[in-house]
Design goal:
Layout: E1 5-11, H1 17-31, E2 38-44, H2 56-64, H3 81-84, E3 87-90, H4 93-102, H5 106-109, E4 112-114, H6 120-125, H7 138-168
Parallel strand pairs: 1-2, 1-3, 3-4
Length: 169
């Protein structure tokens, strides 16, 4: 079956948080039986790491959880992404603002959400930022990993609902 839905996870340089988010969501969607219907990519708001591999600490944390970032190469989110991506997940409010400014219209802006807005506990706590681990150590990468994992079930449920609505339409 062809892909029905597309997600892009966006952080600053696309070497830490967003690649982690990409593989976590790919895994969660596969476990939900949606791997053949939903694609996931990641990108950065800036181009300074374009083409680079994921940060070695992100790779180590992903690997420790059975996920692989070995093939990841940093990309930059562009206005063109809005034409083929259904859900854009910003990792923090700075990314959210950058993506909203890049969006060509309201329909594109409506695709953009903070990733942690899909984690009810994060919403209750009023903390929707995925912590930036870049200047930290492995523990900081584990925190970012855990924050994304906590939102994954909500994202999968959202995608399932979106797919069901498309069938009903």
């Amino acid at each position: 079956m062809a892909e029905d839905y597309s997600i892009c996870v966006v952080c600053s340089g696309n070497i830490c948080r967003s690649p982690i988010g990409e593989v976590i969501l790919e895994d969660a969607l596969a476990r939900a039986g949606l791997a053949d219907r939903v694609s996931v990519c990641s990108a950065g708001t800036g181009s300074w790491h374009l083409g680079e591999a994921a940060d070695h600490r992100a790779c180590a944390v992903a690997k420790s959880h059975g996920l692989d970032l070995a093939e990841h190469r940093a990309d930059v989110f562009s206005e063109d992404h809005f034409t083929h991506v259904d859900l854009v997940l910003a990792l923090d409010s700075g990314h959210l603002r950058a993506l909203q400014a890049l969006a060509p219209d309201q329909a594109a802006r409506d695709k953009i959400h903070l990733l942690r807005s899909f984690d009810p506990e994060a919403v209750d706590e009023g903390d929707l930022e995925v912590a930036d681990p870049y200047y930290g150590d492995r523990r900081d990468f584990e925190i970012a990993y855990d924050q994304v994992v906590a939102a994954a079930a909500g994202i999968v449920a959202h995608v399932q609902e979106e797919l069901e609505q498309r069938v009903r339409a």
